[in-house]
Amino acid sequence: MSNLSDENTAVKVLFETSSGERILLHDDYNLAIYLPPGRICISTSWLNGGISEGLEAVVNHCIPRKLCHEQELEGGSLENYLRIVASNLGYDPSSTSVLLTAASMKHASVVSHSYRGLEVLAIVTAGVEVNGCRVGDPASYYQEDGKWKPFIGTINIMLLIGASLPHYALSRAIITATEAKTAALQELMVSSQYS
């Protein structure tokens, strides 16, 4: 991790785990998990997505609204834009994964629980009151020739598990987190705004 802030931006540490990960709020648009060396991650990001060893950070970034073409993004493409976001926050783009959402980071929820010495931390951003959708609704994200429809109803979950998990268990953790997200929406009676 290089320079976390400049003279105009104060980074707030929201939480630090017992194994050294730090949850950092850069501003209303960027929340990051700083990872100590040796962490294995699985990410759905366009930048360094998949299973990775050696990421220094995972960033949740609020994309500017009303954009519908890659050329409108700084850098002219989504991948370049994600690299610029990482770099502007002081992270090396080659070892940073950046998630996108329309939700503001000031509403992020950070929750930590332990069970028999295993610490699990979830950082969640959600935007479902106005534009929530569900599986089976018409597609809300479609890309062709560098154009896309706006993101709607994004729920990003950044999950830290205080154990060294094999790759199959990381994949299973994503499924379990998705099931938990579905159950939470059902319990809150959040319905689709479209169907």
Total domain units: 1
What letter string, H or E per element, gives the SSE order? EEEEEEHEEEEEEH
| DSSP helix fraction | 10-25%
Q: Biggest β-sheet, characterized?
A: 5 strands, mixed
**How far apart are the first and last residues' alpha carbons, in Å?**
44 Å
Instruction: Please tell me how large the radius of gyration is.
Output: 17 Å
If helices are DSSP runs of H or I spanning 4 or more residues, what is the number of helices?
2
Spatially, the strands of the biggest sheet line up as: 1-2-3-6-7
Number of strands: 12
Rough shape? globular
The unreliable regions are 1-7
Structure description:
This protein has one domain. It has two helices and twelve strands. A hairpin with a 6-residue loop joins strand 4 (40-43) and strand 5. The protein has helices at residues 78-88, 167-187, and strands at residues 12-16, 22-27, 30-34, 40-43, 50-53, 57-62, 96-101, 109-115, 118-126, 143-144, 147-148, 155-161. The strands form four sheets. It has a five-stranded mixed sheet with strand order 1-2-3-6-7, covered by helices on one side. The protein has a three-stranded antiparallel sheet with strand order 8-9-12, with no helix packed on it. It has a two-stranded antiparallel sheet with strand order 4-5. It is an alpha+beta fold.
Furnish the topology, listing elements before pairings.
Blueprint: E1 12-16, E2 22-27, E3 30-34, E4 40-43, E5 50-53, E6 57-62, H1 78-88, E7 96-101, E8 109-115, E9 118-126, E10 143-144, E11 147-148, E12 155-161, H2 167-187
Parallel strand pairs: 6-7
Antiparallel strand pairs: 1-2, 2-3, 3-6, 4-5, 8-9, 9-12, 10-11
